[in-house]
Design goal:
It contains 3 helices and 10 strands; from the N terminus they run E-H-E-E-E-E-E-H-H-E-E-E-E. By secondary structure, the chain is an alpha+beta fold. The protein has one domain.
């Protein structure tokens, strides 16, 4: 399954992004089911916006102070430039994000936040 990791504000439809922001305002992080039926996983970064690197040498641009993961077939817009601000990863199983000590771990990927 293909998943995109990055700042979800770049790729979600405006209504879905507003739904994520509402959930984040209520201190919800991790997996969330949006009103549209889409599922995303999102976490705050410690320092807000910036470019964050993972243990594989990939970079993730962040402008919303959050970083997340979503399955591509469910949510992605048709804008290659925005897609390139994150990274597509292929996982054999549903990814299990884990956030601890300023690091986001998603299966074998670790992003220093």
């Amino acid at each position: 399954m293909k998943y995109w990791i990055g700042d979800l504000c770049y790729i979600l439809d405006p209504e879905d992004w507003q739904n994520v922001c509402k959930n984040m305002d209520n201190n919800q992080q991790g997996w969330m089911l949006l009103d549209s039926g889409k599922t995303v996983c999102v976490f705050n970064t410690i320092v807000g916006d910036g470019i964050f690197k993972d243990n594989k040498g990939n970079s993730y641009s962040v402008d919303s102070g959050t970083i997340g993961i979503t399955q591509i077939s469910n949510n992605i817009k048709k804008n290659i430039r925005l897609i390139s601000l994150g990274k597509v990863h292929i996982f054999k199983k549903i990814p299990y994000p884990y956030y601890k000590k300023n690091k986001l771990k998603i299966n074998n990927i670790q992003i220093q936040l």
